[in-house]
Amino acid sequence: MPGADLALLAIAGMAAVTYATRAGGLWLMVHVPLSPRVESFLRYLSGSVLVALVVPAALQEGSAAWVAIAGAVLVMLATKRTMLALVLGVVIAAAFRGA
Amino acid sequence: MTVRLTMQGVVRGAREMAFVTPSVILFGVTFGVAARGVGMEGWTALVMSMAVFAGGSQFAALDLWQAPVPWGPLLVATFAVNARHLLLGASLYPWFSGLPPWQRYTAVALLSDANWAQAVQAHEKGERDAGYLVGSGLVMWAAWAAGTGAGAMLATLSAAALRTFGLDLIFVTFFACILMEMRRDRRDDLPWLVAAGASVAALWWLPPHWHVLAGGVAGGVAGVLLDARR
């Protein structure tokens, strides 16, 4: 674990980068109009980043993670309620592990 | 109506965003618990939630929370996970361009997915007060911080207990849920498949922690190529 000083520095770095993403879109629109290509890239970037967070993590974790994801996806398809899908997916996976 | 930023707008935004408080608190609790699960101090988790205020990137950071700090991967992952904010901010341009720069760039400090969606919806109905984004953002920020603090305090749960309740699976499941929400139509499928393939390849063949960036960039480039062919 990083010590207190380094932890605060790491958090400050994350906060600065995150603020840059929050202000950057607006700043860019004021100063440089986005080309259609950049716009297209940004539009696919968020989803692709999420895919890249989910798939490798589930591969490393194994079957329980796939059960949680499948459960949550089914609940999302049926109800469109994120929090319910999240809770049910995790509960089903915990039950699967216990079985 | 002219564009401005007033206290009335802040109050209106806060009131109309209040409905999300329970779920944001609950999600904050899961972050606090997960942070303790990887060995982070409670106060560190709280400071992170207050300063960064971006759940996805904070969960991603837990994976990288070690000494020595992996600066490159940590900051790149933070950027990659939060890069979607660039689009949200860009979409506010027609509304916020009428404000003085300091108000414009202060208001977006509290920009996140849910209050952005709420504010855009309000704008369609005639809202022109940028305070709306600030107020709705403050509600989410306070709930996120309170939840994190509570979770970090209550988290005497060991890693084994986290596994028993499936809490170690919360973020991967949450990201899957957000993906379901984000999918627009079949256009997304191929770039997302490319992202999956690239991230798995990076997991196998690159040093640790670069798979998110590899997947994100590969999916984004695939999307650009696909759009160009249409």
Overall pLDDT confidence of chain A: 89
Query: What order do the helices and strands of chain A follow?
Result: HHHH
Shape of chain B: globular
Beta-strand level of the residues of chain B, as a percent range? under 5%
Structural class of chain A: mainly alpha
Which consecutive residue ranges of chain A, at least 5 long each, have pLDDT under 50? none
Domain module tally of chain A? 2
Q: What is the β-strand count of chain A?
A: 0
Helix content class of chain A: over 70%
Please provide the count of β strands of chain B.
0
Structural class of chain B: mainly alpha
Largest interface chains and counts: A-B, 73 and 96 residues
- Cα-atom radius of gyration of chain A: 19 Å
**Main beta sheet of chain A:** none
Subunit organisation of the chains:
heterodimer
Structure report:
Chain A is extended, with a radius of gyration of 19 Å. Helices cover 89% and strands 0% of the residues of chain A. Chain A is mostly helical and 99 residues long. Chain A has two domains: 1-33, no CATH class; 36-99. Chain B is built from 14 helices and no strands.
Write a concise keyword list for the protein shown above.
heterodimer; A: 99 residues; mainly alpha; B: 230 residues; 73% helix; globular
Structure in a nutshell:
The complex is a heterodimer of chains A (99) and B (230). Chain A has 99 residues and is an all-alpha fold.
SSE layout:
The complex is a heterodimer of chains A (99) and B (230).
Chain A: H1 4-31, H2 36-61, H3 63-79, H4 82-98
Helix pairs in contact in A: 2-3, 3-4
Chain B: H1 7-17, H2 21-37, H3 42-52, H4 55-62, H5 71-82, H6 84-91, H7 93-96, H8 101-107, H9 113-124, H10 131-154, H11 159-164, H12 170-182, H13 189-205, H14 211-229
Helix pairs in contact in B: 1-10, 2-3, 2-4, 2-10, 3-10, 4-5, 9-10, 13-14
